[in-house]
């Protein structure tokens, strides 16, 4: 139940060990702090050798660093995962139905189920997409659904990432490093694999080939370049899928057909997995000064010669004010009750809810509607008086740009920190792949951990780390 002071430890550590963690408990009891410290240093060497780093833009944009990796995995029983997977599939289907509706008949608005202003006045709404039929009616092909847990059976969706969610390379590489460091553990445990994620992703991308594609579709991954904070992931995924990693300058559009420049000449491109924002995709339609995309991509898309994933305009579903209405989307489009709950959310654009938020600011988490990465966020119970006053002024000035939520007692998982093994708060980002043929969810996801004692902020940009996420097979 949100707001309760009880903190659920997923392992039941140290006294009441839950069954999925029995092997991990035995392992921790047999390992010394010195042994774990040595393995942690080995992990750092492996990650540096792999080159898996990210940039911190607040430190000048070139402060390359490793995301801290914790050795103690987070474990989910198959029954726990099955429930999550079903809820994730349901949510992804509803979000894609909503996005199709937004750019077509807008039935959900006409039915009064969601305010029109949240859509037509949304900064992420792209009128250029109106009336465009996409393969399989899929807009968010790769979704990262951020979730938290507060009890044995209590899961909440924090937010939906439907534009260009990142972090899946850490899910795959964390597993690879754990298998290298602790092969004995994997021989004893039956852990569902995640290494096939790239195969599932490629099948998803191929399934949404454009109408005018004949034969095997050519798929490329479009990156903004080496200076992007997630460039490692772009290169990793392209390599794992066996497709070309391209930049805007590598692409050319002629007669509404997209080509890439190769040493053998021009080669037609059918599907682009883009890792750049809408504004930079096509200078003829969006930002004219952009050199990250290529002129004409949008027109090739509209002509049925190119599929862009995730689709232009999918960012509406990332909006934290729109997020509040996802349970209603599930009921409206699927005729089902939501399997996963939202966090109770206050809409600060409503005067009565704003009044409540201002009066309880020190108890709530306040988020910018378009914020991400832990930026533009206030964690009231951990904020200073000055931070509270600064946010109070922001809320009064632009209340419609913020939502507020109760401070959830996020579950903890034992984590190896400087003082030894101690509980730390975690969240989970599973990755949902939506194609024309089916919805795919690789078992597990990216577990992010708040390494500072008592902290609820798990974002890597804010000092968080990652863990391997185990789903046990039956």
Short description:
This protein is of the alpha+beta class and 474 residues long. 30% of the residues lie in helices and 23% in strands.
- End-to-end span in angstroms? 29 Å
The residue-averaged pLDDT reads 92
Uncertain regions spanning at least 5 consecutive residues = 56-62
The oligomerization state is single chain
Please report the total strand number as a whole number: 23
Major sheet summary line: 5 strands, mixed
Overall radius of gyration: 22 Å
Main sheet strand line-up: 3-23-22-19-18
Structural class: alpha+beta
Could you walk me through the main structural features you see in this protein, from its secondary elements to its overall organization?
The structure is a single chain. 30% of the residues lie in helices and 23% in strands. It has 474 residues and is of the alpha+beta class. The protein is globular. Mean pLDDT is 92; it is low at 56-62.
